[in-house]
Amino acid sequence: MSASPARNDRRIILHLDYDCFYASVFEVEQPALKSLPLAVQQKQIVVTCNYEARRRGLNKLQLIKDAKRICPDVVIVLGEDLTKFRDASKDLYLLIRSFIWGGRVERLGFDELSLDVTEMIDYNVGLLNPNTMTTSFFHLDQKDPTVGFAYDATKFVGSTYPPTEEVFARPPDIASLEMKLLIASHLNGYLRGIMEHEKGFTATGGASTSKLLAKLVGSVRKPNNQTTLLPPYETSQEAASNVIPFMDAHEIQKIPGIGSRLAHKLRSLVTGPDTGDQKVTVRDVRLFPGMGPVLLEKTLGGPGAPKGIGMRVWNTLHGVDNTEVLEARDLPTQISIEDSYGRGRLDNMESVRRELTILAKSLIRRMRTDLLDKTESNPGQARWLAHPRTLRLSTRPRNAPETDGVRTYNANRISRSAPLPTFLFHMDENIDALADRLVREHVLSMFRKLHPEKSGWDLSLMNIAVTNLVESAGDQKQSSGRDIGKMFRQQETVLKDWTVQEPVERAVIMQPNVSEIPEVPVPEVPGWTLTAPPDEADVWEEGDEESLGDVECALCGAAMPHFAQLAHQMYHAVED
Ligand code: TTP
Ligand code: MG
């Protein structure tokens, strides 16, 4: 077997995953829902449900009809319009980011955050006084020593992996990784408290030295809890690493970055090709004879696979992840809206026009939400922060049935692009009129070029997107998103567990935008692009794609987003 990869545990990373996120958005709007079993519906699926519903036997990605059977008094709310989830997600992200030095916060999907708090922890370790550990003070601001909270530096907040006594017989050495993680657990608890008391959302937290480990250890105790992965991380003469047994116990597919396809290949390698979807753990793969980066590259590499996949997965199996916390762009790279359609729903030009107009309306609404400068008090004069240059229409035709009547799933989209007409930026016209004009004057002709036949297409999906965004010059987006003085005053009353000192003014740290952007010509747009199928379900990350549904389940006919497909299949497997 190859040597274990080298560790580098200099960073301290926190992970936050909001509890039953979509359901919580409804609960925050209507707190009476909290005590009821609540499920959020998209198409015929429960995309999430609150923990009261989970106590009564409901699950994420269950069919609505099954949820009603298992829990007849379940309250079902529609969650197909993602606007409120997106807004809540942005709001929580900005709240948390306002505390983190350097704005080192990455959004993963709608409801997860990775925070690089190394600098904050190093600074606070440097200020520890060994004689007054139980009455330490966490500094949230380097310039103002009064801003922060009191904490006991002899105890972890929340749970640990492996579990430990709350009070140490001997507090950890101040210079140790354990001490840093202990302090990080207090920051984690503080941020979760702020989220709950300011916004009403609970989250589950993890603390470790990488995005991978912080995320995985965070999910050890859900909901509304947090877990810190305790050192040692490396095996030494004194003690064995905690990381290896922690990683080893996970099913291979539960590991971030090892999606369904890679997991399938690894399972086939370990158990043989015909053993179905037998459970295989990280340990099974790690200890497989001859295992190492070379065998992994041979098993997982090939056309379309990222370069160096063998080494990356080898590192992952050992809990080694050196990827940086990437700060989110404030502007999306593209905006795209799509919907899926059952058989026969799009078989004439009138129905295509009608559906395209619905998509176009959502698209323009999203452009106004995401790309307009909201600091302008008169909405009619709001400035565009970026101008997309390209309009793209994509469709996904269904495969015709084979001779035996079986219809195979076609994952390929075909698309056509054209320059985006500038009238879409007119703020004095209403969205309905703009959408109508966009479809009549532009999108329909793109559609006819994609599908020259007069009728008879059988499309399972249509998507309209604006891409190739060019940021506007002279953007002044350093607006303060929050009044931190007010926040600290509020905390005095709401956060009983955390001592809060003087109020202070502080602005949200936004990434400065490039102040001068050269005029970029409209690019050459190819007439035809045949897009490869996306690497479905390997990772689920919130892109700029807004999908209301994507694939049909062959067993029950339910339509669902493509990322839900695998979990849905597993659901059927359990049911059987
Ligand atoms: P998750 O974090 O997987 O779920 P959750 O936050 O609802 O529940 P948990 O407490 O277990 O973390 O996903 C976040 C949101 O994304 C979820 O509220 C609904 C949505 N979602 C989908 O739209 N499709 C999916 O397949 C999944 C898994 C989630
Ligand atoms: Mg969640």
Automatic annotation (TrEMBL):
InterPro entries (alphabetical): DNA/RNA_pol_sf, DNA_pol_Y-fam_lit_finger_sf, DNA_pol_Y-fam_little_finger, Rev_trsase/Diguanyl_cyclase, UmuC
Superkingdom, according to UniProt?
Eukaryota
GO-annotated biological processes: DNA repair; error-free translesion synthesis
- Ranges in coiled-coil conformation: none
The protein's GO terms of the molecular function aspect are:
damaged DNA binding; DNA-directed DNA polymerase activity
PANTHER family named in the record: DNA POLYMERASE IOTA
Q: What is this protein called?
A: Uncharacterized protein
From which organism does this entry originate?
Penicillium atrosanguineum
